[in-house]
Amino acid sequence: MYVSIAATRATKHMRPYRGMWDLTHSFAYSNFGALMDAPLRRTALNSIHKNLKAKMVEFGGWEMPVEFSGLIDEHLNVRTRAGIFDVSHMGEIFINGPDATRLLQKVLSNNPGKLKHGQIQYSGLMTDQATFVDDLLCHRFSDDSYFLCVNASNAEKDFDWIHERASGFNCAVENRSPELSQVALQGPFSEAIFRPYTNIDLSKLRYYWFAEGDVMGEKAIVSRTGYTGEDGFEIYVRWDAGPAVFERILEDNAGCGLKPTGLGARDTLRLEAKMCLYGHEIDETTTPLEADLEWTVSWDKPAFDGRDVLRKQKELGIDRKLVGFEMVDRGIARHGYAVVQNGQQIGRVTSGTHSPYLKKAIGLAYVPVGLSALGTEIDILIREKSCRARVIETPFYKRKK
Amino acid sequence: MTYPENYRYTKEHEWIALEGDVGTIGITDFAQRELGDIILVDLPKAGAHLDEHQTMGTVESVKAVSEIYSPITGDVIEVNDSLASAPEKVNQDPHGAAWFVKVKVSNPAAADALMTADQYADYIQQKAGS
User: Fold this and answer.
1) What domains can you pick out in chain A, each with its CATH number?
2) How many CA atoms lie within 13 A of A49 on its CB side?
3) What confidence tens digit (pLDDT) does each residue in B7-39 have?
4) Residue B111 is part of which domain span?
5) What are phi and psi for residue A256, nearest 5 degrees?
């Protein structure tokens, strides 16, 4: 049996897969590559995962749990009860000082100036070409104090990017990724499960807001955000406090439906909810307009990196667009597969999987704008066979409020 | 999970059970565990000719696609159609109910070159240690 990882991007950094066993070492989305030859980094929770007999894989240069009880089981459990995730590989960049807002206005597509204290906003970190250096969550503490939650494999790149552009701005940019653990609690039971461990009034914490407080005697930041399409929290504590938070919440609540959940389910959950994955839907070649993320572009704020390119693209129209599809023919269209027409490649699949919740094959793809209308049938090449798919509405899954 | 003594195994994690010149082929428990939740199995049709070491189909889990190689040369005489609607059987009973195909084998003695259960158990042990 020869396993090819479905969701990898063919980059020059990628090593060839030599059989099945490589699966455990290289379950990787595109977010691996540059760090390929470096030793894998480990979160503070690494030994907990191993004690729980998780299947460990490489992701973005980190050794992370891909599944515990099984991907589909974990996925459905998050939709119906709750899952706990170690996402300590994610990066945290702090920006403090009188010019913090002005700096972020320059480098981000969205408008952090609109944020109230304690509010969170999804945004692109933009190149001059209006493509994505990264996508991130911007948290505003006060008028001149922020923290950005960024992708694991981009943390250093993002920090360098922002730091380089900060000269002339009166503010400090700090990469605090190595100091912080992040534990995510996701699913409808999250609030009830988490309530006893914090002095933060969770009932008052709204979606895309955060609070500073105490979690099990530790100073913490708690955000009502997530990457699953469910209600839930992302909990930031100091690096060494991460294991106790994860372990105690899991031990106390395993009897009421809480399960440790790996990056495998995190990926299928985010895809059902149509949340972008850097290196798949967005990267340094795609713009927010193409990626159907115009809502993250603030047209009325002061100039920002890439704005002129975006304005022009808005005026002239885009050539390609990110759409959601379901397979009509049998098969699963994976990352990197070609969208074809008359034997020519006209687009590409950015993510695709079997949806555990909807029980059908779904995915996202860039297609020419002329083929982006709902109901349009497109052809995707799956291992040299042309298979029919249909453009459908996204998100594929939306939770009931 | 123990590996049946009367089966032979490949380095690519397929098994074959021979009865006379009829061989039953499947993937090992190690393989299904590595793949995780299996959601699609593509198999050759009855009558298809298989060559040793050549691709005979694919198995997909939620996160990965893998090719299945035929452990032996022969012609497919029966296909386990139940896997089309219930691919999860491969996770549940990889050495039994989730067999893939039955093959009329050209040269049954060729199976002697494959690993025995003990050899295969050692082989995956080494893999795990590496």
Assistant:
1) 1-276 (3.30.1360.120), 319-392 (2.40.30.110)
2) 25
3) 999 999 999 999 999 999 999 999 999 999 999
4) 7-129
5) -115, 35
The reply to whether B2 falls in a domain is: no
By C-alpha distance, the chain B residue nearest A68 is B36
Low-confidence ranges of chain A (pLDDT < 50): 5-35
Q: Encode pLDDT of A257-293 as tens digits.
A: 999 999 999 999 999 999 999 999 999 999 999 999 9
Q: Give strand pairing partners of A174.
A: A94
Q: CA separation (Å) from A375 to A180, A326, A332, A389? A: 45, 10, 19, 9
Interface mutation target, options B16, B33, B62, chain A, most CBs of A under 10 Å: B62
Helix (H, G, I), strand (E, B) or coil at A343: coil
Question: Strand A258-260 to strand A82-86: parallel, antiparallel, or no bridges (unpaired)?
Answer: parallel
CATH of the domain at B102: 2.40.50.100
Number of domains comprising chain B: 1
Q: Omega before A260 cis (within 30°)?
A: no
Question: Number of helices and strands (H, E) in chain A?
Answer: 9, 21
CB pairs under 8 A between A and B: 83
If you measure CA to CA, which chain A residue comes closest to B91? A70
Residue of B nearest to A269 (CA): B62
- Torsion B32-B34-B39-B44 (CA) sign: negative
Q: How far apart are CA A184 and CA A182, in angstroms?
A: 7
d(CA B82, CA B92): 13
Question: What's the sign of the alpha-carbon dihedral B33, B39, B40, B46?
Answer: positive
CB contact under 8 A, B64 and A6: yes
Q: Given CB atoms, is A14 within the 8 Å cutoff of chain B?
A: no
Residue B58 pairs in a beta bridge with: B42, B67
Residue pointed to by tokens 């491969």: B90
